[in-house]
Amino acid sequence: MNLFPRDSLFDFWPLMDRRRSQDEEHHAVSMGMPRIDIVEEEDKYLLSADLPGVNKEDLSITLTNGVLRIEARRSEESETQEKHFIRKERHEGVFVRNIEVGDSLKADQIDAHFDNGVLKLVLPKVEPKAPVRDQVEIH
Fold this sequence. Notes:
InterPro entries: A-crystallin/Hsp20_dom, HSP20-like_chaperone, Small_HSP. Belongs to the small heat shock protein (HSP20) family. By secondary structure, the chain is mainly β. 13% of the residues lie in helices and 34% in strands.
């Protein structure tokens, strides 16, 4: 899933990315992976992830090579493994979400809070650099 979509109206790939993104989202939700919301503000992104049943100690957030990774572990009590379930919809195990963010974030200023099963990240944006224009000499 790309956090930062392409800007060109004539670029065909955003349509493909959007479709792939929707398929990945459907698959992620069906596999019990955390659902996320991302809001863009002028100077930052706000990310919220639902992680019910996860303890703070079982949560890991990393930013490596332009990929923000949210990893959580949720486990049931050992006695549930001995039960005969009629239906089991609550997932357990390791859940991972990888979000491509590129080099547009100030990694050292990311702020994370986890309360009542909701992870909230403040992802400050890097100030855009002014475009450099080089004059080409004509001979």
